[in-house]
Amino acid sequence: MDPSDSTRRPVNGTALALLLLAVLLSGFLLFQSSLFSVGTVMVQGHRYLAEDEILRIAGVGARVNIFRLDTANIQRRLTQDLRIAGADVTRQLPGTIIISVRERQPAAFIATAYGFAQLDGEGMVLAVAKSIRRMNVPIITGHNIGGSYVGERVESPVVLGVLRYLSALSESAFRQLSEIHIESSGQITGYTVDAARIKLGEPEQMAEKASRTSAIFADGKNTMALIEYIDVSYATPYVKFKQERELK
Question: TM spans, by residue (predicted)?
Fold first, then answer.
């Protein structure tokens, strides 16, 4: 018999169980602890929606334990709202939740079978109404999307081309646009608030055409009130002034 066997002690099952229980209890208390209750909820990326409205949609209360918070569920709630294109919810220890949202921004109005629809840059119908109360984005004319409802997406290639153009414009250039007209031939022409025409041609390479348009609008020499038309359908844009002055 090994003499060392006499010095060994049998494992105390009760002590082991108590130790395990203590660890589990400590974890549970930590899980429930107010230390990890949300002290700050940071909302980022919003412009049109109020912060209180975003928190209401997310279902985040004033005090929520960040370990018990289901970030995937909050993200799902946010993206189910048609006004929100994307959302990201992250934890920041010890007690902060960061909610980052990407709102769907209105890009244009367009006629429907019953009035008008407001579209975002991806063709999502954000709102419908019998009339336009406030013209805060350009209107697309010459095309009717029929009986479209909120939440549906426009499938017309030419309308989607126009929306790509509008979405790619600089903010200052976008504010100068009042109308985009789609002709029966498929040619597209824009109109500024000063009634200057912007020849866009076919609904192709619309992001590039938006870049050319934005560059012209950014040039301080190009006073929009003096411009007769701008042709950005070619790689080298052309500007024709009302007083017969031309600039290439």
Answer: none
